[in-house]
């Protein structure tokens, strides 16, 4: 905010104050129950590229293109998930957790009481609560995936980081999401 004010002056700050609730545009105000740290405007571009040529067609053809994409995507994801074990993390999240775990080398954990830590990383200090699943860096709370500071504390506390990842990222949840399918329908000539 200070950088924005420096670049744009008081008018920029006033304009930001008139915007909707900060939870819709500011990462630090995101709803932590959503467990998603992604806030981009690329959704529209991604959606448009998925539709391809159907995007330029009449509304019914466009809607049929969206339906077809959804049918295939849901069936493909459900089929892929059949091979996964219910009590595992989704493969992408498992890889991400391993990647984050490699970054703990720069962190040192100091326990202040059971489940409460101060993590030192270079010159920075991060208060961290394993009991409340909160690190002062904010990443764990927003994403639902432990940050490197939390993983460092978990190693000290002999806790498996996979056990504290949000349920949104478990295979069982993924399978529930893609358990439903969209039934095939006749083309409009047969309506």
Automatic annotation (TrEMBL):
It comes from the Eukaryota. Keywords: Metal-binding, Zinc, Zinc-finger. The keyword Repressor does not apply. Pfam families: SWIM (PF04434). Residues 126-158 form the SWIM-type domain. PROSITE patterns: ZF_SWIM. One of its GO terms (molecular function) is zinc ion binding. PANTHER family: POLYPROTEIN, PUTATIVE-RELATED (PTHR31973), SWIM-TYPE DOMAIN-CONTAINING PROTEIN (PTHR31973:SF197). This is SWIM-type domain-containing protein. The lineage of its organism: Eukaryota, Viridiplantae, Streptophyta, Embryophyta, Tracheophyta.
């Amino acid at each position: 905010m200070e950088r924005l004010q420096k670049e744009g002056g008081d008018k920029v700050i006033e304009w930001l104050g008139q915007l909707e609730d900060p939870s819709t545009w500011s990462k630090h105000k995101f709803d932590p129950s959503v467990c998603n740290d992604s806030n981009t405007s690329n959704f529209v571009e991604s959606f448009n590229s998925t539709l391809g040529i159907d995007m330029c067609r009449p509304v019914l053809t466009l809607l049929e293109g969206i339906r077809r994409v959804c049918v295939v995507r849901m069936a493909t994801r459900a089929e892929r998930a059949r091979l996964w074990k219910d009590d595992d993390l989704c493969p992408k999240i498992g890889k991400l957790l391993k990647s984050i775990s490699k970054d703990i080398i720069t962190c040192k954990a100091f326990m202040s009481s059971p489940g409460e830590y101060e993590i030192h990383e270079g010159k920075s200090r991060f208060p961290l609560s394993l009991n409340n699943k909160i690190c002062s860096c904010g990443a764990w709370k927003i994403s639902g995936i432990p940050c490197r500071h939390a993983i460092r504390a978990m190693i000290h506390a002999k806790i498996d980081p996979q056990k504290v990842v949000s349920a949104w990222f478990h295979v069982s949840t993924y399978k529930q999401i893609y358990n439903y399918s969209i039934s095939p329908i006749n083309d409009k000539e047969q309506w």
